[in-house]
């Protein structure tokens, strides 16, 4: 990290029915829909966020690709971090979708690679990540408008260069997260930005160090991102009270049910978020300004940076010091918290749209 490489600051649009005033208590006005989620994204665009995560789910919410194609036409500056699940669509079809969305967005597409089981299908970790790796390699070739002659365990494909690819002629960056050994090796070999979930600064730093060593073995360089919730108020006491209010109506059984709905509910990363909650103090803080209460009713990223503006910025800077280049932030309700972060945090950060360094991003070797 240097002063000349400011971070990307992204927000989150709740496409998977993940928006609340009180965590775990459904609110009809906050349920995922085109008007509601569009409002979050256009608000983030107007407020100056660099990117926005469009998550993908099966049981809940609305389709991320369809949403991205529509919201691309009503936004101007913000990048769209579109989550796509490897194995759901055959790579040429998925590549056409992504290239079309990128065209509609004028080159503002970024891609969040998801490697999870599919409904009705379960694979062990090693073969699932092998499938993900093969899809990523083929997608990159197609979005780079290159010919494909690929013979792997899951992908058998020979194609001429496609006419349509990424707008700038180069595949949009792949953001990818995972904490198993197989996931980390896949990221080291084929991702551009490795995403981690909220954790202590020391633990996140250890993850970055580990991934740098893995990427070096593949002769590659990755950027690093942190996906976290945030609760910022004018004073620390107000921020802590807002955190307490958020979970004040949460029924424990409801929280457990919400956590189990995700396809990654038993993953290594989710297990680490549970460990973080278990190690927290009686108020739910794992370390100063890192609150784990959100994980009581959410699978995946289960902690929030909580504090006054100076404390929140200091926490983000602490993560930057150990190698984080990009932040994907969120809060409940998502539009209201985006406005608070834009008011209290963004002006205190020197940031511009972040672009990963592709100088050591190798083209995949073709399996034969």
Number of helix segments?
Answer: 11
Percent range for β-strand residues:
15-25%
Quote the average pLDDT: 89
The CATH class of the domain at 8-229 and 323-348 turns out to be Alpha Beta
Query: How is the main sheet built?
Result: 8 strands, parallel, barrel
Radius of gyration: 19 Å
Task: Please state how the strands of the largest beta sheet are arranged side by side.
Answer: 1-2-3-4-7-8-9-13
Counting DSSP E segments of at least 2 residues, the number of strands comes to 13
* CATH architecture call of the domain at 8-229 and 323-348: Alpha-Beta Barrel
Structural class: alpha/beta
Commentary on this structure:
The protein is α/β, with parallel strands linked by helices and 368 residues long. The protein has a domain at 8-229 and 323-348: TIM Barrel (Alpha-Beta Barrel), CATH 3.20.20. Helices cover 38% and strands 17% of the residues. The protein has helices spanning 34-47, 64-71, 91-104, 125-143, 181-190, 201-217, 236-246, 252-260, 268-279, 309-321, 334-344, and strands spanning 8-12, 51-54, 79-85, 109-114, 148-151, 156-159, 174-177, 193-196, 223-232, 285-287, 290-291, 304-307, 326-330. An 8-stranded parallel β-barrel has the order 1-2-3-4-7-8-9-13, surrounded by 8 helices. A two-stranded antiparallel ribbon has the order 5-6. Helix 1 (34-47) packs parallel to helix 11. The longest helix is centred in the middle third of the chain and has 19 residues, at 125-143. It is globular, with a radius of gyration of 19 Å. The mean pLDDT is 89.
């Amino acid at each position: 990290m240097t002063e000349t490489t400011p971070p990307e600051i992204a927000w989150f649009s709740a496409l998977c029915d993940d928006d609340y005033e009180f965590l775990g208590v459904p609110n009809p006005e906050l349920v995922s829909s085109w008007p509601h989620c569009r409002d979050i994204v256009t608000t983030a665009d107007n407020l100056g966020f660099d990117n926005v995560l469009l998550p993908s789910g099966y049981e809940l919410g609305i389709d991320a690709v369809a949403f991205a194609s529509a919201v691309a036409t009503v936004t101007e500056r913000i990048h769209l971090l579109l989550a796509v699940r490897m194995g759901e669509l055959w790579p040429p079809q998925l590549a056409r979708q992504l290239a079309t969305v990128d065209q509609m967005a004028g080159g503002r597409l970024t891609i969040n690679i998801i490697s999870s089981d599919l409904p009705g299908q379960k694979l062990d970790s090693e073969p699932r990540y092998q499938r993900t790796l093969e899809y990523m390699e083929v997608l990159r070739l197609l979005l780079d408008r290159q010919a494909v002659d690929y013979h792997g365990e899951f992908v058998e494909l020979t194609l001429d260069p496609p006419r349509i690819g990424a707008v700038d002629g180069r595949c949009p960056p792949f953001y990818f997260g995972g904490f198993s050994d197989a996931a980390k090796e896949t990221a080291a070999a084929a991702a551009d930005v490795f995403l981690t979930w909220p954790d202590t600064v020391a633990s996140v730093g250890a993850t970055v160090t580990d991934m740098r060593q893995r990427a070096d073995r593949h002769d590659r360089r990755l950027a690093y991102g942190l996906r976290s919730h945030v609760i910022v108020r004018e004073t620390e006491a107000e921020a802590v009270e807002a955190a307490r209010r958020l979970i004040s109506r949460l029924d424990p059984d409801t929280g457990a049910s919400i956590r189990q709905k995700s396809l990654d509910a038993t993953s290594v990363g989710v297990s680490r978020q549970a460990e973080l909650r278990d190690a927290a103090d009686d108020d739910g803080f794992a370390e100063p300004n890192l609150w784990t209460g959100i994980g009581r009713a959410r699978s995946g990223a289960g902690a929030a940076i909580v504090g006054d503006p100076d404390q929140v910025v200091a926490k983000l800077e602490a993560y930057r010091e150990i190698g984080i280049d990009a932040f994907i932030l969120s809060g409940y309700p998502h539009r209201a918290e985006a406005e608070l972060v834009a008011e209290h945090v963004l002006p205190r950060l020197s940031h511009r749209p972040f672009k990963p360094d592709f100088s050591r991003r190798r083209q995949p070797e073709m399996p034969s």
